[in-house]
Amino acid sequence: MSIDNTPTNAAHAREESFERGMEALTAIDGAAGQKVIDSLADVSPELGHQVVAWAFGEMYVRPGLAPRDRQLVTLGMLTALGGCEPQLDVHINAALNVGLTTDEIVEALLHSAVYCGIPKAVNATFIAKRVFSERGLLQDQAA
Amino acid sequence: MSIDNTPTNAAHAREESFERGMEALTAIDGAAGQKVIDSLADVSPELGHQVVAWAFGEMYVRPGLAPRDRQLVTLGMLTALGGCEPQLDVHINAALNVGLTTDEIVEALLHSAVYCGIPKAVNATFIAKRVFSERGLLQDQAA
Amino acid sequence: MSIDNTPTNAAHAREESFERGMEALTAIDGAAGQKVIDSLADVSPELGHQVVAWAFGEMYVRPGLAPRDRQLVTLGMLTALGGCEPQLDVHINAALNVGLTTDEIVEALLHSAVYCGIPKAVNATFIAKRVFSERGLLQDQAA
Amino acid sequence: MSIDNTPTNAAHAREESFERGMEALTAIDGAAGQKVIDSLADVSPELGHQVVAWAFGEMYVRPGLAPRDRQLVTLGMLTALGGCEPQLDVHINAALNVGLTTDEIVEALLHSAVYCGIPKAVNATFIAKRVFSERGLLQDQAA
Amino acid sequence: MSIDNTPTNAAHAREESFERGMEALTAIDGAAGQKVIDSLADVSPELGHQVVAWAFGEMYVRPGLAPRDRQLVTLGMLTALGGCEPQLDVHINAALNVGLTTDEIVEALLHSAVYCGIPKAVNATFIAKRVFSERGLLQDQAA
Amino acid sequence: MSIDNTPTNAAHAREESFERGMEALTAIDGAAGQKVIDSLADVSPELGHQVVAWAFGEMYVRPGLAPRDRQLVTLGMLTALGGCEPQLDVHINAALNVGLTTDEIVEALLHSAVYCGIPKAVNATFIAKRVFSERGLLQDQAA
What we know:
6 copies of one chain form a homohexamer. Chain A is 80% helix and 0% strand. The first copy, chain A, folds into 2 domains: 1-62, no CATH class; 66-143, AhpD-like (Up-down Bundle). Chain A is built from 8 helices and no strands. In chain A, helix 1 packs across helix 2 and helix 1 crosses helix 3. The first copy, chain A, has 143 residues and is mainly α. The model of chain A has no long low-confidence stretch (mean pLDDT 91). Chains in contact: A-B, A-C, A-D, A-E, A-F, B-C, B-D, B-E, B-F, C-D, C-E, C-F, D-E, D-F, E-F. The interface between B and C is medium-sized, with 19 and 19 residues.
């Protein structure tokens, strides 16, 4: 095979994925995504790179599923996994940023009670409450 | 409070929820849902009732989230929980029945690799392969 | 079928389940259960309703298993699930309220080490320590 | 400290725990427990030893919780963990052997739907169905 | 930034990662890895690509941890996750291929009983038994 | 069988296992292990005993796997289980104490992203960051 197998080529591609991922991450998560990357910088810069370049730059940006749909799947997964409160915070924010309403998010977490049980549904819903409150959306929700 | 607190009232409501749920279950899962209920009949008829009357009759039919969106959340949860292969089979069928395409389902399960890890994503994708194959959709998928 | 299929009928049954559940919840959890419902009121009143009306009003009150036995099953489940510390707090309190002794609760959590591993057993036992301490039962336990 | 620190002492205690455990295991699980130990003999005899000597000989035989109560906790844990179908088979048998009725077991697994979600409750209930059927208890259950 | 942002560049890097990953996968898993990729080909070729190009081509080949050490971590993770029997089969084979002995693998799975509980340790050990048996290593183990 | 079946014999063996375990625990975890035992003393002294005498005195000290290798397996398990942050803290310290470098620990947790997904890898890495920081190892890591 005649592909250009130089380190430079791989390094360029690595940088491209990172840039593409950071663009997606910023569009979806605003400052929250960047904060995670920054927090990882002094302990595992490579994990930070993979979050940006692979999770967002390779996977998230694929055209086969709308960002809104990806967030629905993601909310389901994070609720089911348990113990992922920091990620639920990021992704409930992201869900709002890509167009899901507070009502749809609350309904998705209510739906999770059927499949994950009441405790995980309640835990996830309390994260939603905190996010909505921080964004001044709780009154709309309750009204 | 002056509500009609007779057993008959509760029994009627219980029957109504079951009928509403069975209608939803049949619309979404076709024969697969009924088969689960039948299999539970001689060991735990009440669990069968709750699946129909509560999960479908009370929760699934709520208008706040489209059936297609509920399936996206559900696929995410079942993939993350692990060990729910029978339920993934039912709900990948259901996902197709409410309008998700094979491409969207495959993409949702690919997306799950980021949050649940490769093994659970692979296990769920093999269930999708079996369901698609049974429905003659695998060639379309691969084409 | 000739059942009275009016919304009023369903609404009455919904209210009945809620009242029956709230009575059970208050008997078992005292103020703790109400606090969870109140916390959910501005973000997901329907999840609060389901906790009361379904989990307690439909499921918990069934006569087939004594409240004490339900708590033993529940402590096992919450310990195994992991990440359910708030629910363990509520249900260790509930276990005491329905007649399990501190010794039985501690022994059940010790037993969980065999099936869930040491870390989850230790995490659950620290919640028991906090609950016992709040109720002035830790000295009895240690004596 | 003047304890008799010879290997013989430890070896005797190891043998004692094993004998005590095997007695408990046989009383509770009949042939099923022995079968697991035999299956482990050629790959991990030490794991077989620990199951007998520690899980049963040290932990299970403790007087602080009745065998029946231990099985209630265990059914809850195994249902919640997921992917423990072989162990659920052994312990649903054990539950019957120590005096839980089929109705109580079915009710405990129904109760698990509230905390673990419907899929895990259904999966565990199907194991109960198989065990009851093998023991000729399914008709009683359904009658 | 003046990197060569052409699709060709990205496509080349994508191919390079895949080739590097396939080389690693073949060295570690022999035919087993290829079989998983082949099975994914008609349902989710992209998941197959990510397994090879990302999991192996980007992550596994990193020099910071020896292949033998990666397998120890991986055996721990797969045992803890539960429901990952197919992956345990692949990775117990891989562990043998990169130099772990049957005794070390058995000991690692015994160790897992402490952290994951007996059921998951037993389930993983039965997969090891099958793999050892297929490779004619069970007699050595038992001798 | 003619073994000395007196309580004294069992009590001696119990004490021996505890002493052997405490020696191992202190060597590996320093003060952290003792702190957990102390915290359990007033609620579940038997769980504290089992952690020391069984987990460390019986299992950890077995010669079949080097302490360093046991920590690699353990880090994998605790990351995969989720919700075991206190134990990850103890065992990342232990990993450093038995000779794993910060780079190897970070790489093991990066590797976990492939099998457990990004969220659990990130959560575990943040515990590593805290431990490294407390031990003044974070600058070395970042340098």
